[in-house]
Amino acid sequence: MLHQHPDFFVNRHIGPRKEDISNMLSLLGHGSLDEMIINGVPNSILIEDTPKLPKAQNETEAINSLRQLAKKNEVWRSYIGMGYYNCITPPVIQRNLLENPGWYTQYTPYQAEISQGRLEALLNFQTMVCDLTGMEISNASLLDEGTAAAEAVTMCRNINSQNKSDTVFVSMDCHPQTISVLRTRAEAIGLKVLVEKPANFDFSNPVFAVFLQYPASDGS
């Protein structure tokens, strides 16, 4: 007679067993899961009535429903600006990177494939730049513009130790999302962010770095 291994997938991934629930409720002093939820969830957000949800759909039905919903969208010209621009993605990049599940599907319990894929993409980029320029090393871009700006400001502060100022001047023409990241990162390390128009700023005032952007967030 073959006995099933006690540590199989369902037990580990589909919630606690009945005896586990009983032990938990006994330890917390509740008679049921409903009683535990009522005592733990604030009345202001507790829903007493069962939500009226639509009938469950299988994968094919759900995809068809989403497609019908997506057809209601109307595509208009975007004027959002602020660094969000339309771009042409070459088919070879779209197929071999964006649509290649080898770059983003999970393959280990501790790290998503997209992290490993991004590292590989950066390594390929750096290797290509070294081949083209003949240099021994090359840098690679960071994940987003705001983070790159924050890293640049932090680097300026670290390498400019003789400058005792704790203030960085940031042009108000920069993207608002970039300014927000700069303020958040600066606050964490005790720096001040001064946001003004460059034309109105007196550069005789002590600052350890100046952050400008061209073209500006409004395209000028």
What does this structure look like?
It is extended and about 70 Å long. The chain has a three-stranded parallel sheet with strand order 2-1-3, with helices on one face. It is built from eight helices and three strands; from the N terminus they run H-H-H-H-H-H-H-E-H-E-E. With 220 residues, it is mainly alpha-helical. The model has no long low-confidence stretch (mean pLDDT 84). Among the domains are: 32 residues, no CATH class; 43 residues, no CATH class; 67 residues.
Would you kindly provide a brief summary of this structure?
With 220 residues, the protein is mostly helical. Helix content is 42%, strand content 6%.
Please describe the topology of this protein.
Elements: H1 9-13, H2 18-28, H3 33-40, H4 59-70, H5 91-98, H6 113-133, H7 145-159, E1 167-171, H8 176-188, E2 192-196, E3 209-211
Helix pairs in contact: 7-8
The total beta strand count reads 3
N-to-C terminal Cα separation, in Å?
Answer: 78 Å
SSE order, one letter for each helix or strand: HHHHHHHEHEE
Point out poorly predicted stretches: none
* Mean pLDDT rating: 84
Count of DSSP H/I helices: 8
Main sheet attributes: strand count, strand direction, barrel closure: 3 strands, parallel
Categorize the overall geometry: extended
Q: How much β-strand is present in the residues?
A: 5-15%
Tell me the strand order in the biggest sheet.
Answer: 2-1-3
Structural class: mainly alpha
Q: Give helix % range.
A: 40-55%
